[in-house]
Amino acid sequence: MKWGPPGVEILGSLERITAELLARVIRRPQRKARAEQIAWEIVEYGRMNAVGPGEILIVVSDVAFRLRESPRDVRQALCLLQMKGIAQRTSSKDHWKLRR
Predict the structure, then answer these.
(1) Which residues pair with 96 in a beta bridge?
(2) For residue range 44-84, what is the model confidence (pLDDT) as tens digits?
(3) Separation between Cα atoms, residue 63 and residue 56, nearest integer Å
(4) Strand, coil or helix: what is 58?
(5) Which of 9, 39, 43, 98 has its CB surrounded by the most CB atoms within 10 Å?
(6) Are 42 and 74 a contacting pair, CB within 8 Å?
(7) How far apart are CA 97 and CA 90, in angstroms?
(8) How far apart are CA 7 and CA 67, in angstroms?
(9) Where are the beta strands (DSSP E) in the chain?
(10) How far apart are CA 53 and CA 31, in angstroms?
(11) In this structure, which CATH number among 1.10.10.10, 3.40.50.300, 3.40.50.970, 1.10.3720.10 belongs to the domain 30-98?
């Protein structure tokens, strides 16, 4: 039996998988920090574009375009704001309300 090349291939695969997992773990806190940064940019954007008193309507596609972020990242940031009691979902996934 030959164990050389297949064993080396397995070790190479394990090293690659371990490196990918480590990279994901290292990036995770950066993603959360980035989501929080986007969240506060959304709040500022909403305040700047508010018309009159009351709740501020946020349209995900508009905010994503203005902030040059993906709609997915904007939705994640809005979910963070929802957990903090600042944002509220509407019946549409692309429309949110911000509290003043």
Answers:
(1) 58, 89
(2) 999 888 877 878 899 999 999 999 999 999 999 999 999 99
(3) 13
(4) strand
(5) 39
(6) yes
(7) 7
(8) 49
(9) 56-59, 87-89, 95-98
(10) 33
(11) 1.10.10.10
